[in-house]
Design a protein that fits this description.
This protein has 358 residues and is of the alpha/beta class. The chain is built from ten helices and 13 strands. It has helices at residues 27-33, 37-48, 152-158, 165-170, 190-203, 220-233, 246-253, 258-269, 293-306, 331-343; strands at residues 64-65, 74-75, 86-89, 92-95, 103-111, 131-137, 162-163, 176-183, 209-214, 237-240, 280-286, 312-316, 349-352. The strands form three sheets. It has a nine-stranded mixed β-sheet with strand order 7-5-6-8-9-10-11-12-13. Helix 5 (190-203) packs parallel to helix 6 (220-233), helix 6 (220-233) packs parallel to helix 8 (258-269) and helix 9 runs parallel beside helix 10. The longest helix has 14 residues, at 190-203. It starts with 26 loop residues before the first helix and ends in a 6-residue tail after the last strand. The structure holds iron/sulfur cluster (2 copies).
């Protein structure tokens, strides 16, 4: 992109070389002045309406409430939830997928080690000749502009493929060391994933690790059940903490991060039940300009305040989805973020996706 074509900040007019055209604001203006709710809605609408998804979690007065995640949608007749998996028909909240009967997901086996964000601390990733059963879930409770797995939206829009928990559990054969739910996100489909996991554990006599890669927005009761399974099976819960600043989080991900942070605190409280291997891992995507050393330092201080030994993985960003016009994470940014995380008190910090660094 030539300098002339580069987007400029609509508030200060500055061209920092890292202004995302999707946001139209430079990081400085976004962090210092924030965005109004209507502005956030406008930005996200553009990327969601082609998939039939509402720009913001619906708040219809007198509507049916869904409690499955922190968005707490209130749905009027015929309205779809923010994740696209709940709808109200004849006054009743219906699950299009993600309840205990059926899930919206694709799955496949990956030989270990994979590029799992916990691979550097998980003994499972070193299991010779074994495989990970990767479960790509087709919906999400966030709308991150930098989403690295944006294709999940195609599954949400088409509501296919639909799979049963029994069918998924059968795929956990003798070569399966671990099952990892990602996507998309497990949050709007926890009842499905929990049932499939229990069936797989039964089938395998408990010999399969149950892992979750999540934005952490699920109902706390569902997180408790997920942690029970991970703790007893040798698996872990991987929280992707996108940003700590609530305004920055809302702008980048479309919704707020309160539930994620509350859930992370809860997950940290369960570490003493099985400190090794760690049942909780955190990660953050280093989005150029928007998630730099200062923000990473804040996230790291939050984590370290709970337990300085929680492993924290910093991930290189690759231009995708609504943020195709940003550069890849530079080595300079990655090293500054690494240092900020260590200075905040974390003892186990790791740089992932190093092959992507510019
Ligand atoms: S799971 Fe979350 S996003 Fe989906 S309808 Fe329920 S509250 Fe809304
Ligand atoms: S939480 Fe993950 S899958 Fe969902 S929109 Fe954000 S980056 Fe994409």
């Amino acid at each position: 992109m030539s300098r002339k074509e580069r987007p400029v900040c609509r508030r200060c007019g500055g061209d920092w070389g890292t202004v995302s055209s999707a946001l139209g604001l430079c990081p400085e203006c976004l962090l210092s002045e924030g965005m109004e709710e209507e502005e956030v809605s406008e930005v996200h609408k553009r990327w969601r309406s082609p998939f039939g998804l509402p720009a913001m979690p619906p708040r219809t007065r007198g509507g049916n409430r869904c409690r499955m995640c922190g968005n707490l949608c209130f749905l009027g007749e015929g309205e779809r939830g923010f994740c696209g998996l709940r709808v109200v028909e004849r006054g009743k909240l219906m699950h299009l997928a993600g309840d205990a009967r059926h899930g919206l997901a694709e799955y496949y086996h990956d030989p270990l080690p994979t590029n799992c964000v916990a691979a550097w601390i998980c003994p499972g990733s070193r299991a010779r000749g074994k495989r990970n059963l990767a479960v790509f879930l087709g919906a999400c409770t966030f709308d991150c502009l930098f989403c690295q797995n944006a294709q999940y939206r195609v599954l949400t829009a088409s509501l296919a493929p639909i799979v049963s928990p029994e069918g998924l559990a059968e795929a956990a054969d003798g070569s399966t060391e671990c099952i990892c739910y990602f996507g998309g996100d497990p949050s709007p489909q926890m009842p499905f994933a929990l049932k499939a996991s229990r069936l797989a554990l039964e089938r395998r006599g408990g010999r399969v690790r149950i892992c979750w890669e999540t934005n952490g927005s699920m109902h706390p009761g569902l997180l408790r059940l997920a942690m029970d399974l991970s703790l007893t099976s040798g698996g872990c819960v991987k929280f992707d903490l996108k940003a700590l600043d609530p305004g920055l989080h809302r702008a980048l991900c479309g919704v707020d991060n309160r539930r994620t942070l509350e859930n992370f605190r809860y997950a940290a409280s369960r570490i003493p039940e099985r400190p090794d291997p760690p049942p909780l891992v955190a990660s953050t995507l280093l989005v150029p300009g928007y998630v730099e050393a200062e923000e990473v330092g804040r996230i790291a201080a939050f984590i370290a305040g709970l337990d300085p030994d929680i492993p924290y993985s910093l991930l290189a960003f690759y231009p995708r989805h609504a943020m195709c016009d940003l550069p890849v994470t530079s080595r300079r940014q990655a090293e500054e973020c690494l240092e900020a995380a260590r200075e905040a008190g974390l003892r186990r910090v790791h740089l992932g996706n190093v092959h992507l660094l510019a």
